[in-house]
Amino acid sequence: MNIKTATEIGKCLSNQTRVQIMEWLKKPEKNFPPHESLKHFNDGVCVTYIHEKAGLSQSTISSYLTNMEKCGLLILTRHGKWSYLKRNEKVIKEYTDFIT
User: Fold this and answer.
1) From first to last of its 100 residues, what are the pLDDT tens digits of the chain?
2) Per-domain boundaries in the chain
3) Per CATH, is 3-95 categorized as 3.40.50.2300?
């Protein structure tokens, strides 16, 4: 990991809601229902559920999640019209190794 990437990740994590989303996604089965069409969390959590749980506007959550995906914290998978997000554990480990 380089300093530029680490700085971008730090910016993404400088918001309480974004950190909370990362915490929720650490144990998705505890924090979200499985999507009706998948019945599992292999591809992550449906973006709709993240939006509902956060209680913020759709545009705000969309912006947060897009930025978190762009800096590598989240992995996006699409199934038809549904988008799913999960933590990118590899990047999280690289980030924590870099800053420690």
Assistant:
1) 999 999 999 999 999 999 999 999 999 999 998 777 777 788 899 999 999 999 999 999 999 999 999 999 999 999 889 999 999 999 999 999 999 9
2) 3-95
3) no
Listed in sequence order, the residues at least 6 apart from 54 whose beta carbon sits closer than 8 Å to its beta carbon are 17, 20, 21, 61
Helix axes 3-12, 89-99, angle to 10 degrees: 110
Query: Which tokens hold the place of 36?
Result: 């009706």
pTM of the model: 0.91
Q: For residue 79, give both structure tokens.
A: 């199934």
